Amino acid sequence: PPPPPPYFIEQAARGSPTSQHGAAQGRASRSVCGTVAVRCEVIGRRRRRGAGEEGVGCWASWWLGQRGGLVLIEDTIECEGRSLLKTFVAASAHRGESVHVFGFEIPEEEFRAGFDPDVTVRLLYQDGFTDPLRWTGEAGGFCGEEFTALGVSGQLARGPAGPATVVLDSLSWLLLRQPLPAVCQALGRIPMAAASAGLRVTRILALLHGDLHPPGLVETLRSLARAVVGVGPAPEGVGSGGDTPRLASMLQRKETGKVLEKEEYFTILAGFTPKALGEPTGSVPRDEDTDPHSMADPAANLTFNLRLSDTERRARDGVPLPFHFSAQKKSSLLEASASAGKIYYEPDAADDLDEEDPDDDLDV
Amino acid sequence: MAALATGGATPSDGATSFQRKVPASSRLAAIAGTRPSVRHGQLLLSSGLPSLDCVLGGGLAVGTLLLIEEDKYGIYSNLLFKYFLAEGIVCGHNLFVASAKEDPADILKELPAPLFDDVHKNQVDEKETAIKSKQESQESMKIAWRYQNLPKMEVSPAASARFGHYYDVSKTVSPELLKSIKWHRFFLPEEMSLHPEIKTCNMTCGYTRLLQSIQRIIYQEGFDGSYPQKKQKNILRIGIQSLGSVLWGDDICCTDNPEDIFSLTKFLYVLRGLLRMSLSACIITVPAHLIQNKAIMERVTNLSDTVVGLESFIGSERETNPLYKDYQGLIHVHQIPRLNSLICDVSGTKDLAFRLKRKQFTIETRAGSSQCDTFI
Q1: Is the peptide bond before A249 cis (omega within 30 degrees of 0)?
Q2: Cβ atoms within 10 A of the Cβ of A279, count?
Q3: Cβ <8 Å between A182 and B200
Q4: Residue A189 in contact with residue B210, Cβ under 8 Å?
């Protein structure tokens, strides 16, 4: 793959990572309109499940969301996430959705490089890179200030009808120029504004450079997003030689309120298809032996016997309880709650029922 | 031996036949769903969770503010919010739901369904089959068989004026029940779309609009006593979701030096004034874990009446800690109001944890905490 072309000053300042060619195809957060910030530190291999079908491994189950949501791909200077973003774009396009890309950081040709022709057909690029401040006065292009719900849905309306995915490359660029509340409110209202214009925005994919912003801002965005994928470098020894393995840690928040977290290694193959490489095994095994509140048998280790053998248990069950009435008496007691009080007498073995009136013996 | 009289007013009713004689002119009018507090004489509402009512000393006083500090993913705070609103529906109170994230109509549709007394209903409807099944199940209780037929859950809320109900979180409230109450809404994107000339709603604009909306509802519906001829009084339950988050236009969650550091505190000050002069109670959830400047949370705590913080174990290392394996999170009661007194008489710091099952949300002292350790 050719070396990356010279970038803008800010990207150079960031030190654009060299693993660009990895082109993480990252399953585009297929999450249906959910912004699922999937922190996927997918290392190298992503398992490809057919052309544009479900994402790598577990990702298939991820990208399912019903309402518009935000999927955040968070990268850092150590490991870039644009390739992962492109894999999601490819997956969305393969599913037949139109993809509206609002690009601010790299030129259009560079973004389109590497995609299959059937993907580029569905890609509608809004150019915010060439002339972001509208100095040349030319028509076309997309200005940073136009990023409001109405502005975005206006651009979306120019595309074909049907499900659409909105891709922001990158959200950091917008956040450096506009206040966060405004951007978040706009992101939240894009699905509604698009719906009123007759479109259906299935999800909003955004690339965020995590180290450019204060931690509070990143946390706020993570709490707003439906899924977060964080991309990071993988340790040595994962994957085969030719891939650049990466680690993805994914966090998905479902509608039912459940939160799923997962980490996986992945790489990106040519044509922006991901490939899963397995999961890290670094989690600490649970320490069950040192649990002081384990379910120990309380009857053990005693100087007296608290246990029952079977015969003893049966003998205990057979002992009649003092208020153990016959079934008929019980049912009549339980039912006759409203009637007047009745007296029930059950003679036991020692009783001698004599019908005679004992007062007859009295000689008075 | 006399038959056990389990009857109440009707033979199939599990309630007692003793009824409290309320004097004809009682100072505290009998509003549905409230009861007077024996501690400080205020009228108490149920917060929707009987266990939380116990922790707060009987319930939430009318005219006060309950602030919930959200847990990391907002799951359990959202649940408490819904319990509060669902309790309002069951008691017949009016609701006011404000949110910047979800449409209030969607929030109301997802409220949990109240648990009525199903055993009670069976006895009323099919007596014969019920008796037969009773006889079969008599073997289930060998010693306490007299109590077999007592209903397992409490009697239907419609039948008795019970304080605090249980809800089933797996079911949503029925639409008929929703239609029977009157509710008002405030959805920030909707309010902003009504005024399209304002591009972004900053916090002042959003909070001001919310306060104006609440004040208008209180005045129009007469919750502040402006219609003395209205005999039947009712309570207004106000619920505000995720106040202080970015969607309300406030940037206290993203920076250390927000643009207007006092906007949230000013809002709470005015809101508490509105609550005190009307028959209402308010629940607010605040994403406290995101607020960068800790001084703001201290001021917010001072300006609220009851403050409860939630901490869930999801994603933290405590999830696998065996001490916490029965629980889903911890509850911290940061503040309880001192109404008509110098000190609050609810016992002090407790190590409380909560556990959520489908039909019950219980709050209990954590087994194994320092209060219990001496007995193990």
Answers
A1: no
A2: 15
A3: yes
A4: no
* Integer Cα distance of B3 and A338 in angstroms: 9
CA distance B266 to B250: 13
Residue of A125, A122, A85, A131 whose CA lies nearest to A272: A85
The CA distance from B224 to the nearest CA of chain A, in Å, is: 34
| Neighbour count for residue A222 (Cβ, 10 Å) | 23
Q: Which residue of A has its CA nearest to B245?
A: A220
d(CA A13, CA B111): 50
Asked if A220 lies within 8 A of B246 by C-beta distance, the reply is yes
- Taking the C-alpha atoms of residue B116 and residue B180, their distance in angstroms, rounded to an integer, is 17
Residue A164: CB atoms within 10 A of its CB come to: 26
Measured in whole angstroms, the distance separating CA B60 from the mean position of its chain's CA atoms is: 8
- Note which residues in 15-74 of chain B have CB less than 8 A from chain A: 72-74
Nearest C-alpha of chain A: how many angstroms from B3? 6
List CB contacts (< 8 A) between A338 and chain B.
Answer: 7, 11
B197 touches A at CB < 8 Å? no
Residue whose tokens read 């912003």? A213
Strand order in the sheet with A273-278: A123-127, A98-103, A163-169, A200-209, A70-75, A227-233, A246-253, A259-269, A273-278
Q: Do A216 and B201 touch (CB under 8 A)?
A: no
Minimal Cβ distance to B250: which of A181, A343, A344: A181
B75, B134, B189 member nearest A189 (Cβ): B189
Burial of B39 (0-12, 13-18, 19+ CB in 10 A): middle
Chain A residues inside the 8 Å CB shell of B73:
223, 253, 257, 259
Measured CA to CA, the distance from residue A81 to residue B171 in angstroms comes to 41
Neighbouring residues of A238: CB distance < 8 A, sequence distance ≥ 6: A43, A44, A245, A265, A277, A278
Q: Does A321 touch chain B (CB under 8 A)?
A: yes
From the list B281, B284, B249, B277, the residue with the least C-alpha distance to B263 is B249
What gap in Å lies between CA B128 and CA B135, rounded to an integer? 11
Q: Chain-centre distance of CA B2, in angstroms?
A: 43
Q: Considering CB atoms only, which of B11, B200, B315 is closest to A337?
A: B11
CA distance A171 to A74: 10
Best A143, A147, A223 member to test B by mutation, with max B CBs in 10 Å, is: A223
Kindly list the distances between the CA atom of residue B357 and the CA atoms of A162, B52, B326, in Å, as whole numbers in the listed order.
41, 15, 11
Give the whole-angstrom CA distance, residue B81 versus residue B58.
18
pLDDT per position in chain B (376 positions), as tens?
433 444 333 444 456 677 666 655 455 457 888 888 888 888 999 999 888 888 888 889 999 999 999 998 888 999 999 999 999 999 999 999 999 998 999 999 999 998 876 433 443 444 444 444 444 444 566 677 777 766 544 333 333 357 888 888 888 999 998 999 999 999 998 888 787 666 555 667 889 999 999 999 999 988 888 777 666 788 999 999 999 999 998 888 888 888 888 999 999 999 999 999 999 999 999 999 999 888 999 999 999 999 999 998 887 777 777 778 888 889 999 999 988 888 876 766 678 888 888 778 888 877 655 544 332 2
